[in-house]
Design goal:
heterodimer, A: 282 residues, alpha+beta, Uridine Diphospho-n-acetylenolpyruvylglucosamine Reductase, domain 3, Enolase-like, domain 1, five-stranded antiparallel β-sheet, four-stranded antiparallel β-sheet, 14 strands, globular, B: alpha+beta, Ubiquitin-like (UB roll), 15% strand, binds flavin-adenine dinucleotide, binds FE2/S2 (inorganic) cluster
Chain lengths: 282, 170
């Protein structure tokens, strides 16, 4: 039979983590698979009760979010809405209300699905991940967290404790998810774009991140370089779209085809740039 | 290991022994005999199993027992106090918001959460809240009607603030 740990602090959790329990947050990924496969876990650890994994605040480190924050808490947080509106938008597209009330950002990251909707958002926001375990705490750039299809830097006895978005965050933030319907749909393509205005109609510090188009959420470095190489224009938007189609290598799967994904990804970037071209610069 | 977990269920203390990862839905239906919450999909998609966990709508098929220790849970049985139906249930009946009834318990619980947060919701808020609770019969229009009838009554009576309805916070 299974043992359940419900630590209240990281110190308590660290003791239990030595026993290699399965970490349980909102269980919106875990229980689906447990129930479908009938698998059982020798030991489970509830991460939701750990004080250090709770709360969203702005501090010296930046916008500092507990890994056990639910997507409802994230989308309702004034700090997130102000500093990371693209993450608030991502949170609002995850599942429906019942899922958002339980699903956590730490679970989304650790689950490491290529279709995880918060993941491109965190790439575009240059996030850092605070990892805690028996050997202490370490902070890693989110850029380096995913090491391959569903593999990450996380060791079995470690937890994701916090997710930090450095401030000031980019002033231009755009999030688009393309799925079958607005609610409960795993994305076919998800795009997060961030940057700052560079005088005139140009952009700088551009980040373009996508999900569901590769084994891991991915930044499109060539596309970023192109977008900031000249002022925004309809021509630039077209060329950026063509470059997106060229550099990404999505696959056919049950949710979509590679061809559709490539086309849509390019068009999402093109339209985002056209919106920015029209928008008044602040 | 079968541990005892304590929580508040429909306002009353409850205690259940079971494995930590037992699904709340099974605990409610099998151990506690509350069969109002339905299992549709068992994977978080359909919302037929929706209950309130600390006042928020969640799929009870995806809540492990060990996480409800100390929590407050409201099921459809707790929304219809005894044999009295609630105002919300009454407008569902008069407006045809329920047809086959399979989705109805989950739908009522979901809308309860919506009305606790937005006592007079807009159509957009209603659509967003019920998007995770699937109904194959009504086409949703009659459900929206029922909510609008209730909202109109509330506005007419001037009851629009959450505090007026005795909601105990987040
Ligand atoms: C109906 C439905 C719709 C969904 N829609 C979407 C969607 O639109 N977009 C999307 O991205 N996802 C979606 N999901 C998937 C899921 O809800 C998300 O991936 C969610 O963020 C997972 O978080 P959780 O807290 O529920 O994780 P859990 O299921 O509790 O855990 C997931 C994994 O992460 C590990 N883990 C959890 N927390 C930590 C931590 N702090 N440190 C280390 N490891 C940890 C667990 O051990 C497990 O391996 C959906 C799921 C369902 C059931
Ligand atoms: S049975 Fe829980 S969501 Fe369908
Ligand atoms: S009334 Fe039949 S599914 Fe909704």
């Amino acid at each position: 039979m299974s043992v359940g740990y419900s630590p209240k602090t990281l110190a308590e959790a660290q003791e239990a983590l030595g026993k290699r329990p399965v970490k349980v947050a909102g269980a919106t990924d875990l229980l689906v698979i447990d129930h479908a496969t009938g698998r059982e876990h020798a030991a489970v650890l509830n991460v939701l009760g750990i004080a250090e994994l709770q709360g969203i605040q702005v501090d010296d480190s930046g916008l500092n979010m507990g890994a056990a924050s639910t997507f409802t808490q994230i989308r309702r947080s004034a700090g997130v809405v102000r500093h990371a509106p693209l993450l608030a938008s991502a949170a609002a597209t995850i599942g429906a209300a019942q899922i958002q009330n339980r699903a956590t950002i730490g679970g989304n990251i650790a689950n490491a699905s290529p279709a995880g909707d918060s993941l491109p958002a965190l790439l575009a926001l240059n996030a850092r991940i605070v990892i805690a375990g028996p050997r202490g705490r370490r902070v890693v750039p989110y850029d380096s967290f995913h090491t391959g299809y569903r593999t990450t830097l996380l060791e079995v006895d470690e937890l994701i404790a916090r997710v930090i978005v450095p401030l000031p965050s980019p002033t231009v933030q755009i999030f688009r998810k393309v799925g079958t319907r607005a609610a409960q749909a795993i994305s076919k393509v998800v795009v997060a774009i961030s940057g700052n205005r560079a005088g005139g109609s140009g952009l700088k510090d551009v980040r373009v991140a996508m999900g569901s188009i590769a084994a891991v959420p991915t930044r499109l470095l060539e596309v970023e370089a192109l977008i900031q190489s000249e002022p925004l224009s309809a021509g630039l938007a077209d060329r950026a779209a063509a470059l997106v189609e060229k550099v990404i290598t999505p696959i056919d799967d049950i949710r979509s085809t590679a061809e559709y994904r490539r086309h849509v990804a390019g068009q999402v970037v093109r339209r985002a740039l056209l919106v920015l071209l029209e928008a008044p610069t602040e | 290991m079968s541990t005892k977990y304590r929580f508040t269920l429909n306002g009353q203390p409850a205690e259940v022994a079971g494995p930590p990862m037992a699904r709340l839905l099974d605990v409610l239906r099998r151990d506690l005999g509350l069969t109002g919450s339905k299992e549709g999909c068992g994977e978080g998609e359909c919302g037929a199993c929706t209950v309130l966990l600390n006042h928020e709508a969640v799929c009870s098929c995806l809540v492990p027992l060990f996480q409800v220790e100390g929590a407050s849970i409201t099921t459809i049985e707790g929304i219809s106090a005894g044999d009295e139906v609630s105002e919300l249930q009454r407008v569902f009946a008069t407006e045809g918001g329920a047809q086959c009834g399979a989705c109805t318990p989950g739908m009522i619980v979901t809308i309860r959460a919506l009305l606790d947060r937005h006592p007079t919701p807009t159509r957009a808020q209603v659509r967003e809240y019920v998007s995770g609770t699937l109904c194959r019969c009504t086409g949703y229009e009659r459900i929206f009607r029922a909510i609008e009838v209730l909202t109109d009554q509330r506005l007419a009576e001037g009851v629009a603030s959450p505090s007026a309805k005795g909601v105990s916070g987040e």
